[in-house]
Protein 1
Amino acid sequence: MKVAICFSIIFFFSLVLSGCQLDASDHSLSATDPVRVVRISWDTPENRENGESLYVYEIEGYEIKYRKMTDQNYQYQTLRASDYGGLIEEAEVSVAGRGTYEFAVAVFDADGLYSLYSDAMTVTLD
């Protein structure tokens, strides 16, 4: 029987592109299982890229892009507010293997308009 043990890291993104923080105090690791779960969270943006107000009810969801730094292509995870009963401020992303990973988050509204991605944050999983 294979036991899955996940590596969790709390990641804070600010979708208004300011002040990212990383807290790596909450983690466990198994050398026998390459699957890791990175938990990221962010503050709900209050403004659009053009400075206009963005209200919570206008947010359709978020898109997380991530990749292992040795990979050229990104993978994407889309989170729709309707699937989560409303407000979303965190997600878990499963990654395989050790290495350095990069994560960024964008918000999109009901009209399909996307923000720029947040500044990318990196984390190294040993």
Protein 2
Amino acid sequence: MENKASRRLALTATMVKEQLSFTRVPEVNAEGKIVKFAPNTDQKRYVVFDSHRDAPVGFGVAVNKTGMSYILQRRIGARVLKATLGNCRDITLAKAREDAKVALASMQASGKTPAQARQIDKDEIRVSLMTVEACFALYRRHLIERARPAKDSSLGGWNTPRSGLAGLRWIYWVCLSVTWSTNSGSWMRLTKSPRASAIWPRGPSGRMPQPRRLISQPSPPQN
């Protein structure tokens, strides 16, 4: 028998809609068939991975106390990426399998889950709408709140109005080495953004230029 936390079997629509339940756990034999259901005595979440030929490896159903969701869990490089594809009440099994294939292709190409990729797109849009003043304020706050806060002498430069910014692609030159705070409170680096890389080429060391060095540089030529 497989362990209780996860098991593999060829899922069917009937299994998903009628048989899987948080109150009971399917016990699966070596052939991937359900032999019986046992009470979920410890009341823990469990996952049933789909062994059907139409399902990508890592696709399955997560059974929680509050409901069931289609998931995709795959190792991409050195990381294990986990994506939630949708609620089992809202998506058919066949549709979820197709969605899992699309999600897997995206994860393999980007190294990120679909949710992470969407968040990056949202953050880039938010940054693109920022004013120069707001971008300066964001970076100054980062300098103050980081683990080793900047000294007053360093902060002084960010309190002084700058001239000649009209010709700069300011959205990225300030944000190249600044971290952007997402709604969840976590931090992401915009320096790895393809859009940022396209605007400002990396130096010999492979790093983006620092913001202060870009103050006097004109905007790169438009393609």
Protein 3
Amino acid sequence: MSAPTVSATRQRQVVTMKITHFNADGMPKYTNRLINETSPYLRQHAHNPVDWY
């Protein structure tokens, strides 16, 4: 039995739905207050488009 394949249409839908938090030049679109935290775990979320306060 072979594994099911994903149709080309479905692949395009998935790629289209992908959200990016970076500009075309690779710079983050957003920077929230977590950028000021000392925790590496919190800082990794500093460019998520969420206001944490």
Protein 4
Amino acid sequence: MKEKGEEWRGKRRGKEWNEMYREEQRRQEKRRREMKIDEREGKGKERRGKKSKENIIKLKKVLLWFFRSGKCPPAKLILEQVKEISTWRRN
């Protein structure tokens, strides 16, 4: 038969173990949440970056065409293109 001291020690160990387990669960949950947030941010950044790069390349092609043909591109056209790209970056 166990003495009172041994029984109490066993209960205390159980409580400590439960606390440690709960802390570990909290840490893991926090890590999962952070990873989800990171994934969401990463996807958004990749998409936005890709689209703006494509549009900048298009603008460069248009400007190069004007430059090679010897014509001066209208300033209005350049401004419109730049405005479009800046709005795409915001979205």
